[in-house]
Every structure is written in structure tokens, then in C-alpha cells.
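Bumping with the actual sequence this time:
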Amino acid sequence: MPLMTVDDVRRILVECAGADDSIDISGDIADVPFEELGYDSLALMESAAQISQEFGVAVPDDELVEAATPKSLIDLVNGFLTAGATAA
């Protein structure tokens, strides 16, 4: 299974929670806090279902809200993906 990328996070956030036209999320957003990108914990929760559907990973809510940046979310999801791959 492919690993999650910054482009995946960007696409999922826009699909699930929309985009604030006043904030540019097209550049390097990996280390930019979700709040600065216009997304709160509710937006992440809404995106979690899409992440689960696309990547087959159910991220626990408490860990999801701890992900402060796209990079931390990517690391979290990819950690589950690689742990699942080694367990299989």
C-alpha cells in the first residue's frame, strides 16, 4: 500500500473540509500548523473517515487531534501503514 504524502493531506482536507480562499495551501505546508492553514480539530476529524477509506487506517481520535501539522499527520498515518505491513 502506498504511503501518505503532503499532496494526499492537502487533497483530503480540501475535499472534506473545504479551503479558506484567503490562505494558500498550494506550497510547502508540511510543517505549517493546521490552525494557520485554516483547519481545526473538527476538520481533521472529518478528514479521518477519508483517510480510513483511502489508506485503510483508523487513526484514534486522541492521536488525530495531537497531529498539529500535515507532517505529523503523515507520520502518524504512515506509522500505522508500516506497522500493518510488517504485521502482515
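The C-alpha cells above came from a reply further down the thread. Residues 70-87 form the longest helix (18 residues).
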